[in-house]
Amino acid sequence: MSGRLVIAIDGPSAAGKGTLAKRLAAHFGLPHLDTGLLYRAVGVKADRLGQPPEEVAAGLQPADLLGPDLRTDVAGQLASKVAVLTQVRDNLLNFQKKFASQESGAVLDGRDVGTVICPDAPVKLFVTASADARADRRYQELRGRGVDTIKPRVLAEMAERDRRDSERAAAPLIAAPDAFLLDTSDMDADAAFAAALAFIARKGFRSSGP
Predict the structure, then answer these.
(1) Burial of 9 (0-12, 13-18, 19+ CB in 10 A)
(2) Domain 6-199 belongs to what architecture?
(3) pTM of the shown model
């Protein structure tokens, strides 16, 4: 492995980017940041306290990133709503850039990592999947957690979030021009991981571990 490895992973919800990011971070021994968790934390805290999201983002603490309530669909919808606010994004940008600049390298996943946070990252991945595949994954996940829902509702909510994320003026969800497009519609987690490793190896980075 030569140089500092920073892996920027973007993509819509339920495409598999979070699982892939964690596996790549473990494989290469790198710290990992789920940037979407920052926006979830801001959305949840602002909603709970009735405070402006911009103020919450400015004072966000590491402790705010803990808690199972940040992984709910409600938190995801709140995150998407506050993510369109330019001041919220500006207030969180320095935190994310500092994380990415660690001497060890880093893995970050989100929606604007390769385009805004780490535009110079040597490895960029855009993980996507068909709307049906993503909705089915999210539906199965929710049912597994005991959430009473139906697949059409999950699909509709996902489509609305995709529209909001893609059309927002501040850092919309788009693939960086030099990102490797990884469509996981017909892939399991192992296949996606193998495809990502192959791309990273072609960029000149290899793990020294097993």
Answers:
(1) buried
(2) 3-Layer(aba) Sandwich (3.40)
(3) 0.82
